[in-house]
Amino acid sequence: MAYKLIYFLLLLSIGFTSWIQNPSPILTRPFDAKSVALSGINSFEKNDITSIQFSYFSSDETIFEESSILLHNKDRFYYFSYFGVPDLDDTIDAWSDNGDGVPTSDEIDYTRITSFDYLSINFTYPVQVSVSNLEIWPTFSFSSLYEASAYSAGFSISKSLSYKNAQLVFFIHDAISSKWWSTNRKEMYRPFLELIVNSTHNNMTILLDGILSSSDLKGRLGIDFNIHKNLSLRGGYESSGIFSFGTGIKINFIELDIAVVPSNIEHPFKPTQQFTLKLLTDKAWSATKRLSP
């Protein structure tokens, strides 16, 4: 009887939950400057090099700022990010529409323009399942908007396949994910699919990415060209018409990545520049020991 009651309450809570598409899934946002330069595609590369990297994003006129830390330890990494919009003008209440849907100077009360802050803190990491190349990605986040705050939790699933010089990564994002607001609003995120193809030919790596959500298909292309073992040039293109460019430099135990995306008024919350500094801790420790007397 108790199990039936719990089952009923679970169904009841889901029934009163708003089902929406996740506006900013953590695993589809670029992890670093290299990903930004490759049109935002995360390659999810695996290696046995221990490293820690710091990234900083910003948009045109600093509408938003984002920073992240990625700790890579053997075959697992941990990703932590902060996204913030400081003092953005809120003009919704300042406009008194006369019915034509076009704001004019005589319809705007400038004394009613206020500002608001938004922030989001996110954390994720992969967990290897006993099934070969199958991973579960728990995701956690905290966000605040105006005077409301929210917590979200869930997980995504990925499956990796390799064939010759190509690697395929298939994602089910937000397989089960929900968000709870302090206003008692509950949201469930709709799952969506992503396929990443990573193919290497000589000194060039080509990445293709397709995301299918709510019958909407988006594509991305990224090219990484190693003109020298310590220097890379990168470029990318999104199906929405956005280009991206970047470069990567390796110096001993330090890697520096820079990315630039031309600003687009239709996408004000996309980064227009990003910097990533990666420290290869094992190599740095070895260099330190060599310098020790």
Search tags:
Porin; 17 strands; 14-stranded antiparallel barrel; about 290 residues; mainly beta
Would you write up a description of this structure?
By secondary structure, this protein is mostly beta strands. The protein has a single domain (2-291), classed as Porin. 10% of the residues lie in helices and 55% in strands. It contains three helices and 17 strands. A 14-stranded antiparallel barrel has the order 2-3-4-5-7-8-9-11-12-13-14-15-16-17. A hairpin with a 4-residue loop joins β14 (231-238) and β15. The longest helix has 14 residues, at 2-15. It is globular, with a radius of gyration of 22 Å. Mean pLDDT is 81; it is low at 5-13.
Order of helices and strands: HEHEEEEEEEEEEEEEEEEH
Biggest sheet architecture: 14 strands, antiparallel, barrel
CATH topology name, in short, is Porin
Based on helices, strands and strand pairing, what is the structural class? Answer: mainly beta
Number of helices: 3
Radius of gyration: 22 Å
3D shape? globular
Break the fold down into its secondary structure elements and pairings.
Elements: H1 2-15, E1 18-20, H2 33-37, E2 51-58, E3 65-73, E4 76-90, E5 114-124, E6 127-128, E7 134-145, E8 148-163, E9 166-181, E10 186-189, E11 192-201, E12 204-213, E13 216-228, E14 231-238, E15 243-251, E16 254-260, E17 273-280, H3 281-291
Parallel strand pairs: 1-10
Antiparallel strand pairs: 2-3, 2-17, 3-4, 4-5, 5-7, 6-7, 7-8, 8-9, 9-10, 9-11, 11-12, 12-13, 13-14, 14-15, 15-16, 16-17
Please give a quick description of this structure.
With about 290 residues, the chain is mainly β. The protein has a single domain (about 1-290), classed as Porin (Beta Barrel), CATH 2.40.160. The protein is about 10% helix and about 55% strand.
